Amino acid sequence: MSARTVLVVGASSGIGRAAAHQLAERGDHLVLLSRSREALEETARECRLRGAGSATVVVADVRDAEAVDAAVRGVNRLDAVIHSAGVVAYGRFEDVPKDVYDGVLETNVLGAANVARSALPVLRAQKEGVLVLIGSVLGEIAVPNMTAYVVSKWALRSFGRQLAIENRDVKDVRVCVVAPGGVDTPIYRQAANYLGRPGRPPAPVDSPEKVARAAVRAIDHPRDRISVGLANPLMRFGFRRMPRVFDALVGPMFGVAALEPEPLAATTGNVHGPVTARERVADGRGQGVGTVVRNLTGRGRR
After folding, report:
1. Cβ(36)–Cβ(57) under 8 Å?
2. Contacts of 101 by beta carbon, 8 Å cutoff, 6+ apart
């Protein structure tokens, strides 16, 4: 296939970095954007080794609309955008400081809006191109102690749907939302946390590469909504069809399936700035169904 020019937002870590690797293997020209210069330069080197046509580094915060716009204007042609930047905060709503709560929404929602605001006019002028937003199954259900993140993903899901509807007048301009379940990325270890225990991806856990493949595939075969995760349909069914049962179970299950047992001091994590030392594709915190069963029965507690 002919090489494309793709902007990957959040390319220094997790799903974004995995997507950059896969695009590089196709020989695509990459524009890699994130807040973390050191990790971004490392990603660019990895992409060049994998065969990228080119790999340009842009250090910017998605909350900075002017910086995002400058990055898009610096590209002669833009075939696709994969937007994967996101941050998390753990804690009861009233325990999460206002600046941290607002920071999660600003990055996850307003950051996505800044990227779309700059990219969509380019795609529409070309009369073709794809914007892929990385959402979450948490954009369709509710869980305790992650209010800022859950609210942001509900907003991102509706934002993607709105953009998909508004751009149907240009047949080859598409907006897709990829919604994974638990994914083994550093986002949990990088998160702001006011619960006293670190977060982890709940089982069944997919690799960042699997979600990245869905995002890359969406560029060639776009669909408005793409779910990645075996348990996603079950969670959505329980939330919609059996809300009382879901609400009764989600709290206890969250404590054993989505949190590590060791203590953790309160931290702002990477909400206000990158934690470069923790930027990587995967974090090695994946867990199978057996781990969750052991946790539920008390055998997995330390």
Report:
1. no
2. 89, 93, 147, 148
Average the pLDDT over 149-172 and give the result.
Answer: 98
How many folded domains does the chain comprise? 1
> Would 180 be classed as within a structural domain?
yes
Helix (H) or strand (E) holding 99, with range, is helix 98-105
**Domain of 23?**
5-296
H or E element that contains 65: helix 65-73
Q: Using an 8 Å Cβ cutoff, are 78 and 58 in contact?
A: no
Q: Which of 183, 198, 282 is nearest to 231 (CA)?
A: 183
User: How much is the CA Rg of the chain, to the nearest whole Å?
Assistant: 19
Active site residues: 149
- Residue 105 CB neighbour total at 10 angstroms: 17
Residue 249: give its domain's CATH number: 3.40.50.720
Q: 3-class DSSP state for residue 50? A: coil
CB contact at 8 A, 130 and 222: yes
Domain assignment present for 301: no
Structure pTM? 0.93
Would you tell me how many other CB atoms lie within 10 Å of the CB of residue 166? Answer: 12
pLDDT tens across 236-267, in order? Answer: 999 999 999 999 999 999 999 999 999 999 99
